[in-house]
Every structure is written in structure tokens, then in C-alpha cells.
Amino acid sequence: MTSAMLSSIFFLKLAKDWSEIMKEWYNVESTMRTVAITTNLKRKLKILTLSFLALASGTMKYFVTSYCNIFVVEHFIIQLHHLVNVLGECKTVLGCLKEFYLRLYGQEFLIFDYALWKAFLIQLIMLRSTFSWTYVDVFIILISTAFVSRLKQLTNKVRILLKAKTKNPRVWKIIREEHYRLLKLCALLDDKLAYIILLSFATNLYFILVQWFGCMEHINSTVKKIYYILSFGLLGL
């Protein structure tokens, strides 16, 4: 929850500087018109966004004709693990829900007494926090991917010119200008995104340590094993 609150604050701060970033990015795109786009960057960014948000939030929805299929993954697998465990230990629906939420959010209910509406509220907050944590990572990935694509394109252009043994001073002047624009944009992004990147690093490091600690115990449940595999895979990405 703290991570979600901090990310909201940092993004509000970034929103004030967003016009400055976009202005500099526009200057880069205008200067680098001579550099051809060799990859379908737009489609790549969409695939990255959908993949990460689906894996982390726990639901991936897609439509095939008139049917909607829902795949439950990383975020809800651990909840499924607790639900399977409590189903055989309680007799009533309310009893199962209470045991389920006490296992899932035991630390929160050490602070205040259990109530079903409180459990639902905590679950909504946790889901929002999961989305917020993932959105920070996805945002950094998308910005980095778009920026790196331009660096690679400029590098490829330089290689082509070197291979062709181009000696035209005007051509190399344009290359220097394009490189200078990229350096300015890189410095600006580094300055404006520093706190968001630091938050992402700290959050991921925390979850890696938590997951590593959880893996130290003997795991008999197949569901929990799948959860740890997916969770570590997502954090590793």
C-alpha cells in the first residue's frame, strides 16, 4: 500500500513535467526523421503492456467470437492456494471466507478485528496496489523500449555509413545532431524518472526477498509451486 501511495505521488510530480519530456521527445523524433523505423514498435509496446499487466493482475481476457476466456495467473494463484486449503476445514460459507481472509491478510487483522466488509476492502486495496506496482514497472519498460529503439536505429545507421565508407561531412553532422538530441533526452528522462525507477527497484527487491524466504520452506502444494515459479519469472523480467 505504501508503494502504491508513493507511486501516485511520483506520477503526479511527473505529470507536471510531462510536457517538457514530450517536447524533447518530439525534437528527437523531428531530428531523426532520416532514421528509418525498422521494427513495429507500436505493436511491441502493446504486447509488452498486455503481457505484464495480465500476468501481474491475475486476469487475462480475450475474446474469441462471442466467448470470453479468463485465465487466472500469478496474483490469484496464491489466493487459490489458500482457498483450496480452507475448503476442507470449514462447514459454512462465512466460516470459509473468514478462514480464507485470515490466512491471506493475517497481518492486517492483527491490527484490527476481522469483519467481512473489511476483508473485501483490503482485497480491493491489495488488487489496486498490485496493479500500481505493475504499472510502474510497465511504464519504465515502455519508456526504455521506445528510447532504446531509437538508439539501436541510430547505431545501425552509423554501421551502414561506415560500411559504405561515407565521407560526406553533412551526413556525419546530421548523425552528431541526432546523437546529441538522444543524449539530451536520456539526461532528461534520467532526471524526471529517477524516483520512479528507485521505487520500482526497491519494490522488486522487497518482493524478491519475500519470495526467496517463502521458497525456503518445504512446498507440497502444486498450486503454490506454480505461484512461486510465475512470481519469480515476472520479477526476473
From TrEMBL:
The keyword Ribonucleoprotein does not apply. Pfam families: Trehalose_recp. Keywords: Cell membrane, Membrane, Receptor, Transmembrane, Transmembrane helix. The chain crosses the membrane at residues 133-151, 193-214. Its main location: membrane. InterPro entries: Gustatory_rcpt. This is Trehalose recp domain containing protein. The lineage of its organism: Eukaryota, Metazoa, Ecdysozoa, Arthropoda, Hexapoda.
